[in-house]
Amino acid sequence: MSEPVTLYKLIVLYMLSKVDFPLTDAQLSDFILGQGYTDYFVFHMVLSDLEEGQMIRSEKIRDEMYYSITDTGTETLKYFHNRISPSIRDEIDQYMAKNRIRLRDEVSVLADYYKNTDGDYSVHCLVKEKLSRPIDLTFSVPYEEQAKKACRNWQEHSQQIYAFIMKELL
Question: What is the pLDDT of residues 109-132, one digit of tens each?
Answer without folding.
Answer: 888 899 999 999 999 998 877 667
